Amino acid sequence: MSRFERLVRIQAEGYPKPIYADAILPDGVTDIGQAKQARVVGSSIWTGGQVVDSIVNIKKFLQPIEQGAIGTVRCLGLNYREHAMESKMPIPEYPILFYKPSAALAGPFDDIVVPSIAQQAPGVDYECELVAIIGKEGINIPESQALDHVMGYTVGNDVSHREWQLKRGGSQWSMGKCFDTWAPYGPGIISSHIVKDPSNLTISTKLNGQLVQRSSTKDLIFSIAQTVSFLSQGTTLKPGDMIWTGTPQGVGMGRSPQLWLKDGDIVEVSLEGVGTCVNKVRYAKTDARL
User: Fold this and answer.
1) What b/e string do you get for 161-178 counting C-beta neighbours within 10 Å, with b at 16 or more?
2) Smallest Cα–Cα separation from 226: which of 166, 146, 131, 169?
3) Do the beta carbons of residue 242 and residue 72 sit within 8 Å?
């Protein structure tokens, strides 16, 4: 048996419950979300994720990691040089850290639901991001060993409400980024055994088919290895922890005129070697009340 290369969590024909599997890409295809079949992963994804010979047909792509297996969701702000420039902010001396609740996570083709509280003022924005998934526990990890603790990489959209993030949140960013479904990611996780160097990958966003962000992870201020090492200082990183590593230039806030997400918009965030998350923006009509 071999280890997985492109981990997906799916609904598959013949299986009543979701399963983990290794996506089989057709010839010439690099987008995991275009896979039609996958090989079943027969062991824990945290202890090697060994692939068996059983091949299944994919019915639906789900969040690549089940909710109960997610640990801490850490996120970086202002981690691309050109994004810091468009935000008219200085290059940070240390990584800028904030958190998202795991309830914000959503599948690669799920709707981004905008609740009533986020409809009170304009400002819903997109942010394509490389996401690193921790697979090996560690604390005070040296930079030279940091990538050994990464299971793999995926792409996500750190959906943000700039009014709540910058004006109404009391200087804390999380309120503008914490709503349910505001962190869709996937369609799968490419193994760190396949991507040896995550520092030169193309990353992009399309809004309603128009390219609005395109950059390379070589523009990162703090590399993946630097970030993992920094976040582990005095703090244990555990399997299932996620690190969202920041967005490049081109966000709606930095444009003139500013470009905000609207009801019915289609947002696509892509990462080289992983594929594309495609999500429809849906404004909630009513919210449940206590």
Assistant:
1) bbbbbeeebeeebeebbb
2) 146
3) yes
d(CA 261, CA 116): 14
Q: For residues 112 and 89, what is the distance between their CA atoms, to the nearest angstrom?
A: 28
Q: How many Å separate Cα 169 from the centre of its chain? A: 23
pLDDT digits (tens, 9 = 90+) for 106-132: 999 999 999 999 999 999 999 999 999
**Residues 183, 159: contact at Cβ < 8 Å?**
yes
pTM more than 0.90: yes
How deeply is 266 buried, as exposed, middle or buried, from its count of CB atoms within 10 A (0-12, 13-18, 19+)? middle
Q: Are 99 and 110 in contact (CB under 8 A)?
A: no
What mean pLDDT is predicted for residues 201-219?
A: 98
- For 249, residues 6+ apart whose C-beta sits below 8 A from its C-beta are 80, 82, 83, 85, 86, 213, 215
Whether cis (ω within 30° of 0) applies to the bond prior to 115 is: no
Q: How far does Cα 61 stand from its chain's mean position?
A: 15
Residue with tokens 């981690």: 79
Give the model's confidence band at 290: pLDDT under 50 very low, under 70 low, under 90 confident, else very high: very low
Q: Which amino acid is at 144?
A: S
Contact (CB, 8 A) for 161 and 125: yes
